[in-house]
Amino acid sequence: MIQRSLLAIALAGVSLAPPAGAQDLKEAREACTPDYKKYCAGVMPGGGRVKKCLTDNLDKLAPACRAAVIANAGAAPKQK
User: Fold this and answer.
1) Which of 11, 21, 56, 59 is at 20 to 30 A from 38, Cα to Cα?
2) Is 79 domain-assigned?
3) In whole angstroms, what is the distance from residue 34 CA to residue 15 CA?
4) Which structural domain, as residue segments, surrounds residue 65?
5) Average pLDDT over residues 60-74
């Protein structure tokens, strides 16, 4: 229960951009939950830390999560 609450709070950071609606937030959470657990589970929510973690791992994220992070957090794909 606590882990789900922390995950919900953490993934809320994915949709901080004003255009994102409730449906966008729900889709971002669904798309990014596995990636959050895999790459950012140890990241304490708040202060943009989860957003930074997901952005730092952008090239590793599943396509749906990557798209949600880019669309909702203003992240740009890393150049190789």
Assistant:
1) 21
2) no
3) 16
4) 2-73
5) 87
The whole-angstrom distance between residue 41's C-alpha and the CA centroid of its chain comes to: 11
Strands, E, within the chain: which ranges?
none
Residue 57, C-beta contacts closer than 8 angstroms, at least 6 positions apart: 35, 39, 40
Helix/strand/coil for 42? coil
Rounded CA-CA distance 32/34 in Å is 6
Phi and psi angles of residue 29, each rounded to the nearest 5 degrees, phi first: -60, -45
Rounded Cα distance between 15 and 8, Å, is 11
The total number of structural domains in the chain stands at 1
Q: Is 80 a member of any domain?
A: no
